Amino acid sequence: QVQLVESGGGLVQAGGSLRLSCATSGLTFAASTMGWFRQAPGKDREFVASVNWNSGTTDYADSVKDRFIISGDNAKNTMYLQMNILKPMDTAVYYCAVARFVKFPRRPSEYTYWGQGTQVTVSS
After folding, report:
1. Of 3, 50, 70, 110, which residue has the fewest beta carbons closer than 10 angstroms?
2. What is the mean pLDDT of the chain?
3. Residues of the chain with pLDDT under 70
4. For position 30, what pLDDT does the model report?
5. DSSP state of 40
């Protein structure tokens, strides 16, 4: 019943920008944290950013701090990731996910629901 669908990925040149969206259905945002992860080939899934829907508190990985912005629109049940000054190291499949009743979740195991991912490729 719970569904998360990512969109907005694509090919972009280094220094460019992309905006990812995560449309949700079948869940509420009460007591929830929504996050973005990414996974490059041969690497572990990596935490990118999260936002707590109750408090508005955001959390960013050091690698994306000051470049990426996470936000959400509760009326649309949609979360966004604005990615600026993209670098080749940002190339990965990006996933959105939902965690419940976990403080400052950063590990994939702390998240309950996952989308299918959207590919982001940054050329040099």
Report:
1. 3
2. 93
3. 28-31
4. 65
5. -
